[in-house]
């Protein structure tokens, strides 16, 4: 009897251990069935700040209205389908782009300080240059097993864990706050040398504001049926906007006030950023993606990696500009540039020699602050006029003919083609270029006083609802 009891007891221990082992080790299946352990919850996309959700849909792409220019780039109309995405409700403003510039400036300054600090050894709050040493050099910095392994291997390509910056220590930009001579020597190297200054004005040397990043050449990887670091394209972009465009674009006009202060003056903080190239716009998208990814990674309860921000394709831009209206000549839907009270609906050049939409108020000779004109059916402002906008798409005769009817985009030519499609018209353009189907182009390395951009972010297919971003 005792022997039988021991056998039964042993069997119960084995069964209970096997149950616990199955749960703790993650053995697949439940009761022998292949059942995913993750709970089947509907995904809710988090709407990024300042963006609106553009629902998926189809529309007739192209210039359906009369083409007064008989442009040879015009192509046959065709119905296309576009997936849902988030889009900036306004063009990127000077204030938003300055966040990018300040990040690049601070990153470079911190890297220079960390190199000069050497071993550091201090854990203070910026009272000596030693406080700005790399985080791994700080006293008490504890490396986990992964960090120690990566450091022993020399780090990853493009990333060295031993050179992680310590962003908790505040930078001191006022000369009266410099903690020591060595700190002053490093910070002053960020400014124009004395022999290049005008009226001895202490100005940041914007030529040093280089943003380095990398992106994957997906087309080449797919062609080779492979993936790896050899398909990564490394970029180092000078990101400060070209403020001289206000003079170069208009040789016989007095635009010196805009040349002097359009980008940095607080009066223009809510005006659209202009004077940026296509490459600079893409660099901004990368920074915006990095900012969100780094935040998600910093949370104790980590969030899933955010979808990347990017420039809209030409098809996405036109679909969004139409605002959900099938035959929208302009983003507001109708074929007229004025409302029933005679007020212009966008910032553009209304008459020959006249750049002002409201002569009584005498405002908006050039660009206007964002959100000054009515939004379209999707909630987007300035999809016509103010600043024309870069798109991701190349500009050539085959753009419409050979592109797919499903999310049309010639990705294999996007990077190689030097001409990029520009949409929406600007403050200096006549009403024709404000039409939702009108196309224009600019070379990707060119900056203009009338071209800006806005970003988009993909939404996973069949996402049922969107959630406002928490403050």
From TrEMBL:
It comes from the Bacteria. Pfam families: FGE-sulfatase (PF03781). GO terms for molecular function: formylglycine-generating oxidase activity. Residues 50-456 form the Sulfatase-modifying factor enzyme-like domain. InterPro entries: CTDL_fold, Glid_motil-assoc_lipo_GldK, Sulfatase_Mod_Factor_Kinase, SUMF_dom, SUMF_sf. Gene3D superfamilies: paralog of FGE (formylglycine-generating enzyme) (3.90.1580.10). This is Gliding motility protein Gldk.
């Amino acid at each position: 009897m005792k022997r039988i009891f021991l056998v039964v007891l042993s069997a119960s221990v084995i069964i209970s251990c096997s149950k616990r082992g199955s749960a703790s080790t993650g053995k697949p299946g439940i009761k022998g069935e292949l059942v995913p352990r993750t709970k089947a919850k509907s995904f809710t996309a988090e709407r990024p700040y300042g963006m609106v959700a553009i629902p998926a849909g189809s529309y007739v792409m192209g210039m359906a209205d009369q083409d007064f220019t008989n442009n040879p780039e015009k192509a046959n109309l065709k119905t296309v389908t576009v997936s849902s995405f988030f889009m900036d409700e306004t063009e990127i403003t000077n204030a938003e782009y300055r966040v990018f510039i300040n990040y690049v400036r601070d990153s470079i300054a911190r890297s220079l300080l960390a190199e000069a600090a050497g071993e550091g050894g201090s854990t203070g709050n910026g009272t000596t240059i030693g406080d700005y040493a790399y985080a791994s050099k700080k006293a008490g910095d504890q490396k986990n097993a992964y960090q120690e392994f990566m450091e022993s291997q020399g780090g990853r390509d493009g990333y060295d864990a031993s050179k992680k910056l310590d962003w908790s220590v505040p930078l001191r930009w006022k000369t009266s706050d410099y903690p020591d001579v060595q700190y002053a020597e490093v910070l002053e190297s960020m400014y124009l040398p004395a022999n290049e200054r005008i009226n001895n004005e202490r100005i940041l040397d914007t030529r040093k504001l280089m943003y380095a990043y990398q992106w994957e050449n997906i087309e080449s990887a797919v062609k080779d049926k492979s993936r790896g670091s050899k398909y990564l394209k490394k970029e180092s972009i000078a990101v400060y906007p070209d403020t001289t465009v206000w003079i170069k674009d208009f040789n016989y006009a007095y635009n010196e006030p805009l040349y002097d202060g359009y980008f940095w003056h607080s009066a223009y903080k809510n005006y659209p950023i202009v004077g940026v190239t296509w490459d600079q716009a893409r660099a901004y998208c990368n920074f915006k993606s990095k900012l969100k990814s780094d935040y998600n990674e910093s949370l104790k309860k980590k969030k899933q990696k955010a979808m990347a921000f990017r420039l809209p394709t030409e098809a996405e831009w036109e679909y969004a500009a139409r605002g959900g209206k099938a035959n929208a000549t302009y983003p507001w839907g109708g074929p007229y540039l004025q409302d029933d009270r005679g007020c212009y609906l966008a910032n553009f050049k209304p008459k020959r020699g006249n750049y002002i939409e409201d002569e009584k108020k005498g405002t908006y000779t050039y660009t206007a602050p964002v959100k000054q004109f009515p939004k379209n059916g999707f909630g987007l402002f300035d999809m016509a006029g103010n600043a024309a906008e870069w798109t991701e798409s190349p500009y050539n005769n085959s753009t419409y003919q050979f592109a797919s009817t499903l999310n049309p985009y010639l990705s294999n030519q996007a990077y190689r083609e030097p001409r990029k499609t520009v949409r929406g018209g600007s403050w200096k353009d006549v009403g024709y270029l404000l039409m939702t189907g009108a196309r224009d182009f600019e070379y990707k390395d060119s900056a203009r006083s009338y071209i800006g951009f806005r970003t988009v972010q993909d939404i996973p297919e069949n996402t049922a609802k969107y959630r406002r971003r928490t403050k």
